[in-house]
UniProtKB/TrEMBL annotation:
This is histidine kinase. GO terms for molecular function: kinase activity. The keyword Ion transport does not apply. The keyword Zinc does not apply. Its main location: membrane. The chain crosses the membrane at residues 24-43, 309-334.
Length: 608
């Protein structure tokens, strides 16, 4: 029972400490997460405003394009009606200058039926035919008019020059004797006498009530204060709610040029008092541009609203996740603390502190027991430190002996240097070059007794070795290097590359029929691994030999390069000891074509 009370009290203490610790986590959250996140959010808001404006205007453009499709449908319906009348033979017969009165009357009967049928089209407000004054019923002024009465029409010259194609007029006010004044569009086309084709016999107008078009435009709800209208490529107003603007030029300069050159897009209208965007798209059937002028302030307000929503959502999500993480970690700490303490105590007991058994039920509970255990461990550590000191003394003595052993390499360097000068004195450059190469080789290979060298030094060692072999086998092989930049600060095991290069030369190229060839040495980093490759175009090997090279130790080769050993087994084992079993050599060889050996090494950064 006493034990349970002690454990319960310890649990309460742990919970209290966890809650106190949480306030520092919250403070850290505010300082290192919340404030930086707010700063980044402000920066993101500023940078993304332009992007959001583009997204908003693009959304509006898609809505405008849908309205343009609806307008095309209306105008195309009128065009089809015009084509039906234009191609009707009764119209041609009526317009024929040589037609008799009877023929005209006969044609008019069916032509009247055709006109009445056309006007049943909901998109067609009126069909009007302007012909020579000698035709019957030209004074009717409902469907038939004299051509002379149309000559003052603003679009008359354009219709006469169109060669019979449809010319669309902008919205204008027309007074009908049976309807009164109405704003309409007209699809006009010139008519020719089919028997005398050079003679113009009339003009066909299909009128469309502007209300049919404005009803479509009024359904477009882009912004509260936006304005939607139709303009021609020259900037002339075709249709607008403000009728006083009809026929006037609404745009000029760069915005007009941009709208004229492109089928759709967004341009900024430069106006210091009322900055706004013009979103436009082409009405294919007429060539006009459907334009929506939107105040920049409304688009900016949408962008700001989207940014604010995104920012609040981000901050809220981060806060909720962090608090959830805090409480989860706190619960885990409270749950696992006793178990961790017990684990530490059991570990200490297994270490040989038997006296702890007498103090298992101290009044202080597990924490007091842990403190006592640490006291005993401190005494144990003092003893281990004394042992470590003795080991360091012995290690120092070993280093002194190693420094003494370096006298022999220095003596070797000095002796080679003396031989080099003697060779120079006897004018023997070949001997001098060989001695210099050999001295460089020993310096790089010995590396002051260190087991690790930089990648650059390892490549230089292979280069010096090949230079020595060039003197031994002149003009028998060529060497190329493919070295990635940035390998100077990496370390690798010493004498890894040189045995592979030696194997390529002596067992690949020198055993080929011509005893000549090329060696390619490459080095690069890939996914945190250093890759060294040596490729030769020598005799190659069969698959059985390739499989055995890295799995079976082979006898050492002779000094002349002959023998059965390829030295690759030892290199492979050294790499595995240095980096682990996931690294080492791989060999790809084709008999008669050559061999590629690849070394995969977990490199280390050179200590500064």
């Amino acid at each position: 029972m006493k034990r349970l009370l002690i454990n319960g009290w310890n649990y309460v203490l742990l919970l209290t400490n966890g809650v106190m610790a949480a306030k520092y986590w919250l403070l850290g959250y505010v300082l290192f997460i919340l404030i930086p996140a707010a700063v980044l959010l402000v920066m993101h808001t500023q940078r993304s405003s332009h992007i959001l404006e583009e997204e908003v205007t693009n959304t509006m453009l898609q809505t405008l394009k849908q309205a343009s499709i609806n307008l095309d449908f209306q105008f195309d319906s009128v065009r089809d009606t015009s084509n039906t009348l234009f191609m009707n033979p009764k119209l041609a017969e009526y317009l024929n200058r040589k037609a008799t009165i009877d023929q005209q009357l006969e044609s008019l009967k069916e032509l009247r039926i055709l006109v009445d049928s056309a006007e049943t089209n909901t998109n067609v407000f009126r069909v009007r035919l302007f012909v020579n004054g000698d035709r019957m019923f030209t004074g009717e002024r409902v469907n038939f008019f004299t051509q002379e009465s149309l000559k003052n029409w603003p679009w008359y010259e354009k219709v006469m020059n169109s060669g019979g194609a449809i010319v669309w007029s902008g919205a204008y006010l027309e007074s009908y004797i049976d309807q009164g004044p109405v704003y309409i569009f007209s699809a006009a086309r010139m008519l020719r006498d089919l028997h005398e084709y050079d003679q113009i016999s009339g003009v066909l107008l299909i009128d469309v009530a502007e209300k049919t078009i404005t009803d479509i435009l009024n359904k477009i709800k882009l912004t509260k204060d936006g304005n939607i209208y139709l303009i021609a490529d020259d900037g002339q107003m075709i249709s607008n709610q403000d009728k006083s603007l009809l026929g006037k030029k609404m745009m000029e300069g760069e915005p007009l040029s941009t709208i004229s050159l492109h089928d759709e897009g967004v341009v900024r209208l430069l106006d210091d008092k009322n900055p706004r965007f013009a979103i436009y798209t082409k009405v294919a059937s007429t060539g006009w541009k459907l334009v929506a002028e939107v105040p920049q302030s409304e688009i900016s307000s949408r962008a700001v609203a989207l940014n604010q929503f995104s920012g609040v959502a981000t901050i809220s999500t981060v806060t909720i996740l962090f608090l959830l993480l805090v409480f989860i970690l706190l619960a885990m700490i409270v749950r696992n603390m006793n178990r961790r303490i017990q684990t530490v105590i059991r570990t200490i007991k297994r270490g040989g502190i038997e006296s702890l058994d007498d103090r298992t039920f101290n009044a202080g509970g597990d924490f007091k027991l842990l403190e006592n255990s640490v006291d005993h461990l401190i005494h144990r550590v003092h003893g281990l430190m004394e042992e470590t000191y003795q080991s360091k003394v012995q290690e120092r003595e070993a280093q002194l002996r190693a420094l003494q052993a370096q006298i022999n390499p220095h003596f070797l360097y000095n002796t080679l240097d003396t031989i080099n000068w003697i060779a120079i004195g006897h004018n023997a450059p070949e001997i001098s070059n060989m001695i210099n190469g050999l001295a460089k080789y020993f310096r790089l290979s010995l590396n002051k007794g260190r087991d690790l060298v930089s990648v650059t030094d390892e490549l230089n060692l292979a280069k010096v070795y090949l230079e020595i072999q060039q003197s031994r086998f002149p003009k028998s092989f060529e060497v190329r290097f493919d070295i990635e930049v940035g390998l100077d600060d990496l370390e690798m095991p010493k004498l890894t590359l040189q045995p592979i290069v030696e194997n390529a030369l002596l067992h690949g190229i020198r055993r080929s029929k011509g005893k000549t060839g090329t060696i390619l040495i490459g080095a690069r980093k890939e996914d945190g691994v250093l890759l060294l490759t040596v490729t030769d175009d020598g005799i190659g090997m069969d698959e059985e030999l390739v499989q055995s090279l890295l799995t079976q130790p082979r006898p050492s080769m002779k000094s002349d390069g002959s023998g059965s050993s390829y030295g690759l087994y030892n290199v492979n084992e050294r790499i595995k000891l240095f980096a682990g079993d996931h690294y080492g050599l791989s060999i790809h060889s084709t008999l008669g074509e050559g061999t590629t050996v690849t070394a995969r090494i977990a490199y280390k950064e050179v200590a500064s």
